[in-house]
Amino acid sequence: MKKQKNPPLQSQLSEHSPQPKSRTKESQDKRDNAVASSSSTAISKTIEAPAENTVSSPEAPSSLSKDASSKKASASKGKSPVREGGKVQAQTSPAAEAAVSAAQGDEKKKPTKTRRTPAKRKGAASSSAPQKPASPEANTGEAEQNFQSDFDRRLARYHDELKWLYCELYNGDTAAFDYFVSMLRRSWEERKEPLRQQDLRREADPDWYRRRDLLGMMLYTGAFAGTLQGVKEKLPYIQECGVNYLHLMPLLQSPKGRSDGGYAVADFRTVQPELGTMEDLEELADSCRGEGISLCLDFVMNHTSEDHQWARRARAGEAGYRQRYFFYDNWDIPREFEKTVPQVFPTTAPGSFTWLPDCHQVVMTNFYPYQWDLNYRNPVVFNDMTENLLYLTNRGIDIIRLDAVPYIWKELGTTCRNLPQVHTLVRMMRIACEVVCPGVLLLGEVVMEPAKVVPYFGTPDKPECHMLYNVTTMATTWHTLATADVSLLRHQMDAVCALPREFVFLNYLRCHDDIGWGLDYPWLKWHFGTDEVAHKKYLNDFFTGKWPGSSGRGELYNDDPRLGDARLCGTTASLCGVEAADYERDPFKLERAIACDLMLHAWMLTQSGIPVLYSGDEVGQLNDYSYHHDDEKWDDSRYIHRGRFQWDLAEMRHDLHTRQGKQFEGLRRLERLRAGEPCFDGRANVWTFHTGSPHVLGVGRWYQGRKLIALFNFSDQYLTAGAPEPGAFDELIYEEHFDQINHLELYPYGFKWLLQIEK
Ligand code: GLC
Hints:
The chain has about 750 residues and is an alpha/beta fold. About 35% of the residues lie in helices and about 15% in strands. It contains 26 helices and 29 strands. The strands form nine sheets. An eight-stranded parallel β-barrel has the order 3-4-7-13-14-17-18-21. The protein is globular, with a radius of gyration of 27 Å. Bound molecules: alpha-D-glucopyranose. Alpha-D-glucopyranose (GLC) binds near residues 300, 367, 403 and 512.
């Protein structure tokens, strides 16, 4: 990878871009004094006391997944030509591979348990031709039928649709399909009893994750507690944070220095040794389950590390394994692809292919050169990767984050993103989970514009992901902070509110990745004449502290001068100005920055869906600059917000004289109020309204006769705003009473949660 610095972008901010209000200190001094003793301190003032069988089988052990040499395989009947990237490539059917592998006596990858022939299902397709899918509703008499097991009951519901989708995608390869189904059965047989019981409970309460019961946190095991054992010991802290959904960032085996933060997986069944073992993970999952905490893990499905055994064997020239990736003898086809495929890491890893000098091949690598894209056109890849996924769910993982899912299907002449086949694959994975482990949720990582995101929910009768990241709202929130103009956020909120309530979004302010400025630019252009490139530059200048008067302390990420498309990194607190204020020892600025940080969290908690905190944000952890001096990390600025959790600072979380205390207790108060107030339920009606101020966002929520009106001041100004609602309201946070709420005063970055008094 080239290490290069880019010249600063020369573009100008559009004069029509929403501008921040002038943030001169002099005019504010008097009011700053007032806010110093109000805002963030006041939020935390009214605080209540804090409440509160290991199967280590080798990876992908399928005999049908064995990759045989192409010579032998092509001699068999199962060979079907598949057009790929403009050339016809031999594709070996799993049945043919199995035959060849068996003949070769390759015992190593045989399943640890004997495979059973699937029990004859009622109404199962008897011929090998795909049948038209029956809708789940068609199976009304399910309860009356005598199924041999829960697996058979569930399979009966989905079999025909699954077969239809599978055979359509894989050219009627029924041998591969049969293998797939037998693999599902085997995975279910290996599922331990407590997990099966949980499946049944969740099956009986399919809304279990849709209400407002879940509060998430994502963290790096190493940075947070050293090891998985360490995380187990720290579960009381997790619970003290009110968290019952824990996302552990990638922890599977990944080569040092070529890991992309763990997103280059070398073995889907081994934990990074420095973090512990698969047994430790399973033990942690058991403990979490005991405490009512759902555990989330990434499933990096678009690619493997070049160190994965499949990649090694492909590199060594084994044809069957080469067919698991995208290999080319020369650059002809790769060059064609690169004409239409946008780059993911234009500066840190330019291009979408990598030349392998040792074997004189070009391999597709959309992310880093050491992350080889898997070829899901090959059913063996889909079968084995689904088996790897189910292996993880059988360890006790409740939520599977489908990493980079829009990228998993490639087609020459396209962007290779969000292609229709991706949806077929996701739907089949959803069915696999519904059949084997219906208690497990799929969280899609779809960092795309809204029109591309929503289809990953599927439809109510053919759902794909259970949950998706609310990425546009997240990016628009930061835009709103930088411009102090809420109109785009309101527009975005209206779009989200118009979606079916079954669609569950995961709301967040920060995560382990950068903030990409994926805003609705056509809308901004129409309303403000905003120029996209100039606006991105403004946002980046604002949050890196270059813009006069701004206190953000972010760093740019993948600043590509040709595209003007730089993204942004930094922790919430550092982006909100806490770091600058702390450094300058300016108490007024600090109060204001903490108020801003808490306002953003309150806004996140006001949205329907699952709020997920980024570990460290609960105590306002600042940027970590040590990555600059780390040979393995220096060129990836995302490490600025992946620093070690600072337990010494977190120790101060109950002391309201410290910023950690104000942050932690303020946030806890908001979370408790949310947990106790039915208006925050995911099934509530939600709407936005005009507040009389362009700087103040107004959101209404109504649920079962209760109405909540929320106001958020995204500016650093004192101002007056209100809601067009008659009658008296009680403010929940400050415990104030208002006879009317048409004209309320808001502090800089102030917010209110107003509950209508029931008569
Ligand atoms: C996802 C991850 C990101 C990673 C990429 C490649 O986008 O969030 O951190 O670099 O996938 O796996």
